[in-house]
Amino acid sequence: MNETTEPAAQEMPEMPTVQAWHIPRLIAAWAAALVMGVLVTVLVSGPERFSWLVLAVGVSTLITFALQLGTAERVGFITRVAFSVAGSVVIIALVDVVGLIVGALS
Q: Is 86:27 a contact under the CB 8 Å cutoff?
């Protein structure tokens, strides 16, 4: 007998598709990061600015977790959170760099 040992039940899992209702949650997290980054850049100067920026990243991470847990969908959770947090970090960093350039020019 020459039987194949490949089980039919073990198929490759499909990659999750981006749901249209996930996009507003990403945008909301990024908007919160933008607002916090602008507030820190405008209101805080000197050496404590970095501490406040770290706090802004932490708060935006918590906002991201809350928004993504609100979807109640397990598939793709890590990917959505990672993408959202990475975007928040980039947004806060860009806001700070722009604030430093504008502050240096004035």
A: no
Question: Identity (one letter) of the amino acid at 58?
Answer: G
Convert the pLDDT of each residue in 28-56 to its tens digit: 999 999 999 999 999 998 889 999 999 99
The tokens for 44 are 């805080």
pLDDT digits (tens, 9 = 90+) for 51-103: 999 999 999 999 999 999 888 888 888 989 999 999 999 999 999 999 989 98
pTM, to two decimals: 0.77
Residues 90, 31 contacting (CB under 8 angstroms): no
Longest dimension (CA), the chain: 83
Burial class (CB in 10 A: 0-12, 13-18, 19+), 43: exposed
Report how far residue 87's alpha carbon sits from residue 101's, in angstroms, rounded to the nearest whole number: 21
- Residue 6 DSSP class: -
